[in-house]
Design brief:
The structure holds two protein chains of two kinds. Chain A is of the alpha/beta class. Chain A folds into two domains: about 150 residues, P-loop containing nucleotide triphosphate hydrolases (Rossmann fold), CATH 3.40.50; about 60 residues, no CATH class. In chain A, a hairpin with a 2-residue loop joins strand 4 and strand 5. In chain A, helix 3 packs across helix 4, helix 3 runs parallel beside helix 5 and helix 5 packs parallel to helix 6. The longest helix of chain A is centred in the C-terminal third of the chain and has 18 residues. Chain B has nine helices and no strands. Classes of the chains: A alpha/beta, B mainly alpha. Chains A and B meet through helix 2 and helix 3 of A and helix 5 of B.
């Protein structure tokens, strides 16, 4: 479980990008942070993983305060974190298997053979075969995302962070990536946080949703209550497309008993 | 821009960079890769530049010596000393600073933009140590090798001019090359380039656009040292 407590973050003096955000992300669940572009989703995610320092507030990993951690404890925590970046962030000078091996080479005490076996297992687990010796640039976007997921799970993380895992993918590949993340979350009982503005993803795999608007938490709740949130900003976000506007009309008609 | 801000950031970066590598095996492997990528790949361009430097020096020296009291072998002597003291340490290093600096800048810039450095930081890898230190080690170890190579090829360039033109005989040119040889010049030249390589590596990595300033600093150091 990850608790975010009253987090504030600014890059320029007196201009808060994140304004007093507090929420809890539960383990074994798909937690999603949604919001418009520029609302502060990625900044929040980077604050949680420690890439940005907080102006105020705290992050608690299963009760362990991130801000109070020593350097050694932070290093230990890093080995419990896996992250999937928006652009995959695979090391382009390494082959796919070397990318997956990289965290193990740096931190694992396993033998070389065990590391190789683990890397192959992770790649096969995400459905990648026969690409071990290829370079990231030789793979499609979807395959790169899979390889990045394989690298993220190579050290058996307790926490998985995904920054817009569906961006740049076709709907079918995007849904496969979503399904993969769900499977891995359940299989390894990870606390998974996904940053997204893809509503299909939210509706298909999301369990606990946090909506960020202009750096503030505007709404939080289960997926089922998304359409009845009574939050105008969230409604504007969800019903922005024509398809969802039609859906809302149907929903309202249903509720008023017209259908 | 606040200079103190940059001094502070540079110091922090160097502290992170020169900490003990997390895995020695990985570090050695990275250093060897960087030697290949930054050093060995510069061999060909060093060969071309040095050949021309030696050839032009020989022609220019011969054309500008008018005093009949000066012996013919002076051309070889001047070519050798100029190559050892100026061209192979300073000019070549300035050239390599641009070449290697742009190489490093493009690589690290791409890594930063594509979030590869963030990915390392999240894994708990000391990205400064993993990326920068092998490059500094590579340039410090390999640029002196390139300088020595440049000395030989520069003199070879001069020799080829002597061989294929009639401005000086090859025997007199070689005699000039061997005449009154001061070994210290070679060590001195290599010391200059080690300092230059180290500084250029660090500065390029911190702030890739500072090569001009760096050249100025090293030229000053060079003239002061002699």
């Amino acid at each position: 479980m990850i608790e975010v407590r009253d987090v504030c973050k600014s890059f320029v003096a007196n201009e808060l990008v994140l304004k007093h955000i507090s929420t809890t992300f539960h383990s074994g669940k798909i937690n999603q942070i949604i919001g418009r572009s520029g609302s502060g989703k990625t900044v929040l995610l980077k604050c949680i993983v420690g890439l940005h320092t907080l102006d105020s507030g705290d992050i608690l990993y299963d009760g362990r305060s991130f801000t109070a951690m020593s350097k050694k404890e932070k290093m230990q925590l890093c080995s419990e974190i896996g992250m999937l970046f928006q652009g995959s962030a695979l090391f382009d000078s390494l082959t796919i298997i070397e990318n997956v091996l990289f965290p193990m080479q740096m931190f694992s005490e396993k033998s070389e053979k065990e590391q190789q076996d683990r890397a192959r297992f992770c790649l096969e687990r995400v459905g990648l075969y026969n690409v071990f010796d290829m370079y990231p640039a030789e793979l499609s976007g979807g395959m790169q995302k899979r390889a990045a997921i394989a690298r993220a799970i190579s050290l058996n993380p307790k926490y998985l962070f995904c920054d817009e895992p569906n961006s740049g993918l076709d709907p079918l590949t995007a849904s496969k990536i979503d399904e993969l993340i769900v499977e891995l979350t359940k299989e390894f009982q990870m606390t998974t946080i996904i940053n997204t503005h893809d509503l299909n993803s939210v509706l298909s795999v999301g369990e606990h949703i946090v909506f960020i608007h202009k750096g503030e938490k505007a709404w939080e709740g289960p997926k089922e209550k998304l359409f009845v949130s009574n939050c105008p900003e969230l409604d504007d976000f969800i019903f922005a497309s024509e398809m969802y506007q039609k859906f809302r009309t149907t929903l309202v008609s249903e509720q008023s008993g017209q259908i | 821009m606040n200079p103190l801000y940059h001094v502070g950031r540079y110091s922090q970066l160097m502290y992170r960079c020169f900490s003990k590598p997390q895995r020695t095996g990985v570090f050695v492997s990275q250093a060897l890769k960087e030697i290949d990528r930054l050093g060995v790949s510069s061999l060909f361009i060093t060969l071309i530049v040095s050949l021309f430097m030696g050839a032009v020096l020989t022609i220019q020296t011969q054309n500008n010596i008018e005093n009949p009291l000066l012996p013919d072998y002076t051309v070889g002597l001047v070519t050798r000393d100029t190559l050892l003291l100026e061209f192979c340490s300073m000019v070549l290093c300035l050239f390599l600073a641009g070449n290697i600096g742009s190489n490093i800048a493009s690589q690290i810039g791409t890594m930063r933009i594509s979030e590869q450095i963030d990915a390392m930081d999240i894994m708990g890898v000391n990205s400064a140590n993993y990326i920068i230190l092998p490059k500094i080690v590579a340039v410090v170890l390999y640029i002196p090798v390139l300088v020595v190579f440049s000395m030989f090829t520069g003199m070879l360039g001069g020799y080829l001019i002597a061989a294929f033109t009639d401005i000086i005989t090859t025997s007199k040119f070689i005699y000039g090359l061997q005449y009154w040889f001061i070994e210290w010049y070679v060590y001195y030249s290599r010391m200059v380039c080690v300092l230059f390589s180290d500084k250029s590596g660090r500065f390029c990595l911190y702030y890739c656009l500072r090569i001009g300033l760096l050249g100025l600093f090293c030229t000053w150091w060079h003239s002061r040292g002699r």
